[in-house]
Design a protein that fits this description.
six-stranded mixed sheet; 493 residues; Rossmann fold; 16 helices; six-stranded parallel sheet; globular; alpha/beta
Amino acid sequence: MSRAKRIMVQGTMSGAGKSLLCAALCRIFAQDGYRVAPFKSQNMALNSYVTRDGLEMGRAQVVQAQAAWAEPDVRMNPVLLKPSSDTGSQVIVMGEIRGQMSAAEYFRYKKQLFPEVLAAYDSLAAENDIIVIEGAGSPAEINLREDDIVNMGLALRVNAPVLLAGDIDRGGVFAQLYGTVALLQPQEQNQIAGLIINKFRGDLDILRPGLAMLEEKTGKPVLGVVPYLKVDVDDEDSLAPCLTRETAHKPLDAAVVRLPRISNFTDFTPLEEHPQIGVRYVDDPQKLGSPDLVILPGTKSTVGDLLWLRQSGLEAAVLKLAAAGVPVLGVCGGYQMLGEVIHDRSGVEYGKPGSVRGLGLLPVETTFLRSKSRTRVEARVLAGPLAGARLDGYEIHMGTTQVRGAPFCVLESGQEDGCAQGNVWGTYLHGLFDSGELTQKLAALLCARKGLEPDTAQAVSHAAYQQTQLDLLAQGVREALDMEQIYRVMEEQ
């Protein structure tokens, strides 16, 4: 077994803050001079990323890799589940599609993946000084204990000390932590090196009697109380993310349609960082109102979400806004929806062969294929007032689109992508706002339409902004945790 040190963060529930705690530890260890890699054996998420070698992985481990100043590597997330329904997912192993499985099928199948998971871990551990491992959900989901490959099953196999985190902001944190420890088997309890209270707001002195009682009842030390940190880091590791974050009022209003199977919503995080653009997510035509920009995002179920868009009344509302000159942008599945028709002749996505009418706002026609396009690209926008913006993004889609109109952008290879017609644009590129250049041009266009003066500050790339935020995250977590004890338990293990 590798000599690399390792530490694992597990949570009492989904959303306890495991992803950000792991990102913080990755940055802290990297700042301390270690070669660090994140690892999550199995991730369930609709936000994914394409590595430089064209493989697909979850974005949470991409953020953690960036925190460690490391290149994202599919070994950091060997198994990715992309839910396509409430009971089924596309199963991606080492960046490649392994198949579509129901929850019951995958539960029976996953034990076959453990050798591949361990091989990925071992190869990373051979190249790094420290591996920061993230669990999933809760280790106290005792119905899933058999053949576990992501929580205590993995911790025991690689002998990783575990930090168990609970979210005090939701309430009941003492019951969360005590109950989780109590439900574990003795050998699993022995793997827990300490407890973390996360997202605390208030007077720590008032909390201390509870911490003492928690340590007494669990027999585990509390290694830190992490405050509710006001940092802006992509925290994506859930099937149904909360897209209702409150933001300060801004003069420009961008409305993203919250599709039932929305994916890669982090595409629009850079828009939220712009001082003039407010971003909100809407799933009701009454809430759509009169925005300055409408965005149809990516989705794991293009046809199903297109039919939902139609049935909900949002299609009619979007068409009305487009006819009034409001800019409309579609990304990936949203781009496909903006076309004239979507063909699924083999039942690749919707389960049965057929064709569905699109919104008809772009002169394009999409046909679904069984193979998936996965590639990182650089591009330059050609579309009207947005022309010249440099893009650095990636494509993940299972369709090919025939375009009869003007392209949205041109790739560095010379290949054209997307389509632009008047105030409607569509593209397959995820991460299109990350460079900051398209954000600036779009804000200037929207300001001109509204008679506002555009912000003239130089565009800041999303990557540079994220690095600053990761430093702030690491500082807050380092100050809150007993890092000497965490280093000590890694050495002991």
